[in-house]
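subagent[fold] <- orchestrator: predict structure for attached chain, return tokens only, no commentary.
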Amino acid sequence: MAYQQKLAEKLLVLNDRGQGVLIRMNHIKKAYADPNRRPSFLTEKSMESAVKYINRKFPNIDFRGGSQQLSLIQKQKSAVLEVLSSFYDSFVDVMEFRDHVYELLNTIDACQCYFNIVVNFDFTKNYLDLITTYASVILMLSRIDDKKAIVGMYNCAHEFSNGCSDPSYPRLGQMIVEYEHPLKKLTEEFGPHTKAVTEALLSLQQVYPRRNLPAEQWRSVQLLSLLGTPTNLLSPASCDTMACEYLPIEVMERWIILGFLLCHNSLNTNTASQELWKMALRSGLYITLTRDEVLNIHKLSEEHFDGMKGYNKRIADIKECKEHTIINCGGVHREKRLFLRNALKELTKVLEDEPALLGPKALFVFMALSFSRDEVLWLVRHSENIPKTKTPEDYSDSHMAELLFYMERLRALLNRYNYILQRYHLQYLSQFDALILNDTIQSIYVCPEEESVLMTSFVSALSALTLKQLDSGEEFDLRALRLDWLRLQVAYTSVGKATLALKDFPDLARIMNMTQFHTKMMDSMEELLQETAELSILCFYPRVFEKMFSQSSEDSSMQRYLMAFPMVCARFSQSTHHMCPEEMVLMEKQSLKLCVKFLEEIAEHLCSVVLEISAEQSNLHEQLLPKHCAETISAARNKKLKKPVPKKGEVPKEKPGTESHRKDRAVVTNMDKMHLTLTELCTSYSMCSDFTVFKHIIVPSEFLISQLEHRLSKIFVRMANYNPNTQDILRPSELLSGIHAYITSLNTLSRYINVDIPRLLRSVLLQQTQPLDSQGVQTITTLYTNWYLEGLLRQASSSLIAHCPTMHCFINQNVENEQNFKAEQFSDICELRALAELIGPYGLKFLGENLMWHITSQVGELKKLVFENMDVLVQMKANFDKPEMMSSLQKRLTGCESVLKRMTIIGVILSFRTMTLEALEEVMQKHCPFLMGPIESLRNFMAMDSDIKVAISVYELASAAGLHCNIDPALVTAIANLRTDNSSTEEEYKISCLLLVYIAVSLPTLAVDPATFYSREHGGHQNNVHCLATAINHLSAAMFTVQNKSIEQHLREFLQVASSTLLQLGQNVDKVEVKNRDSVYLLLDMIVEESPFLSQDVLESCFPYVLLRNAYREVHRTFIHTMG
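subagent[fold] -> orchestrator:
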């Protein structure tokens, strides 16, 4: 009996096995064609003689006679066996596959099986698949150039290792030799099967011509349209050949071309065969063998029939069909793609609006997917091999993105509303299919027992389906029913002399084919989608795929569909085969490469548009800055004073806002175009939030975030306009204004797509508070740090720029060499607040660290000066209250001007640091007042006698928030790190004490300097010596904190020495030496005012207050006199 042969099971197993073997052959061919993947010993020159010897003697290789040529193989036999074993086994698999196919085809012929694609669809389809798969395997085997070398070399290594040949080698070698001319050998093999193959192919006459219609006829019958016949909108889509309706036309063409190549006798005797064959030849130039391997069907057919007796007419037919194809085929398929784009768009819109229609119209969806897939694959095959034609544009499509997009949308709809499909078809199966199948079975007058049992089981299985199973989440598995239907077709109803011939009961075949489709809706949705919408061929045509993307991205109307390209890459994993895991790794790399490339290009395009819009908004915002209103104010003032108007040649400057005035709505501005492009590109991101490519989760919006982050960082740095050569830089307030304009514009992006713009801005701006960003590029923090150190503070150290306590800024001095910037425009309260906003606490900490480095370098030099004058300073400290001795010691003291100069530099730097911390405090109070309160309370809670380590930790926290501290923790850390390993604590303490003495006894020299004049307007001295007060207080606090000594005690001693030396100025009658004596006296008051450790009582005990009062009166009187 035929059922005992298990033909159905063998067909399924061999088809799957054949696909695996075919993919293995393709992988071997690609591996040996790629120099990077080719086994290394095959590329060695020393191995060439062995390879040539094997190819020449194959398959009868004389191991003894060729010992000289094969000696290298003997040396590397283990490596050869290890590398070539998988390839050799693959060739053995081909041989075994061939044996099983022979056996099955002979059994089918012996059973005299009946084939008809309309009646026994599954049996006929699997039979034709097996034939084309087998032929494809043999053709792929013939394309592997190194097959003889691989098999022969492996067998040589096996012989050298085991003393005998591999058992499979004789038959395998013979097979390889036989198939050197594969089509000739295949034609001989299929001679006995011609009748069965021809019968199966001719049954396609009922399907293929109807499926291969031009787009005009599709339009005329409103194919795939749900709205064409509104009265049938709710009627289930059904026909007598349901499975044939979504059968890929590419598959049918492969059956016809390869089938008639193998069994060509009927082409000369049967007109129907000729017409079917010629129709397939006119449909294209290439058919797919596997992956990116194609057959040039006209060339192959002509070469095959050339020389055969009686086939001249067929050769003429081939040439005529080829000419017809080149002239007409490109345009025909272009029109089909145009029709399908519109048809799929309509279908998608209707089903998105009414997803319940997916139930009755599921067949339409799979037909649409199958038709679209056929057109995509045709274009891909022919784009890589464009013929010489007058219309090459027919072989490229700039609108491919739209077709791919709607294919993806339909797939997404099927997956999203799978419950609707299952619920509809479950009721269809149990309440219609089961009943009509039962009636059909009852109407069969003769039904053998075994067939009756099978068909009764169909009815029982379908009737048992209930909605409760679906609602409870039960998984359906109806594969057994479909396998039994295939068994019934193969073993019982399609063999010769069958008691129940299926061809005599077409209603049973129609109902069962329809029922099978309905069962697939319950449990095999992914298999159907793989059959009708699988586009993995694009993975093997990367150039074509990238060209399609490039053409679509250039078309503005296609930009909203671009996300379909990376999403197609997510489907490539479904086409892998378990028999070729090596290919899976390569496909994963290629899929990810393509997906990332597409996403990066989409993100880059969108990023460019967003940043162009933001730049334009920033430019418009920049026009509103206060500095641009001067001309407007001047013009208004001139008009009021009736001054002459400008000459006619002068074009009046446009006011901000004129760009929004429109005289004609039809005029499209550049901003309009950019906003349209922005909308289109953002629409593509709404297609999906994430998808998976080979177990890698891809989030498209993250690519956009990454691009924006990278480019925004560059833009913000570029906006600063820093020039290290000329020391030019944009004012912090202007830069902050520009960045705010960018931020405002970027925030509108979240209205288009779901992207976390605040996270992006936080990341970018936080990176700008560090010295380098994530790309290792200098940030705003570094630029402004360099500029303030090199541009502002360096000139302030040279007294070209003065610190102005009254205005809390630095100002330019009236000197001959005028600076290229105004210091107050970069150091006033507003600018430093803007700086604090820009670089934040982290940036100001970096700025502070750089300031501390400059301070420590000055302190190091001060220590050297102290060490040089140590003996004199020790005596001065002991005798500061003895004027005569101090006078003589003063003459021995050197470097007083240098000490004061370096201390002034330290004071200027610390004054600037204090200003930046005050600005930071205001910014922090504005942004996080609830955080500042606890920090301020914690700072105030610290007593002066607290543990110094705890106090410094609290001060570090407070200083980071911009709060003023009695002891500067950054300066303490810098001073502590300055200490050398050789110096002891006592030596450091002694140097610190003597440094204060040095400063105190050097103060009188300031009176000689004419620049020491105190300006009431600025609240300081012209040469910045008022910054000595800040330097003395901060430096002494830091030094004695490090040494754990009393700060107050040493400052008292400093006041005593300084007062004693300054009082001696009053006894000096030389007007030159006492010219700015009063301005110097004020330094003592400044030191006490700024110090948290000293009070006026302490000062008055060593320096009469009346002198200070007189000094203030004198400097104010001088100020009035000069102003008068």
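orchestrator: received. Logging for downstream: Residues 1120-1124 have pLDDT under 50 and may be disordered. The first strand starts at residue 286 and ends at 290.
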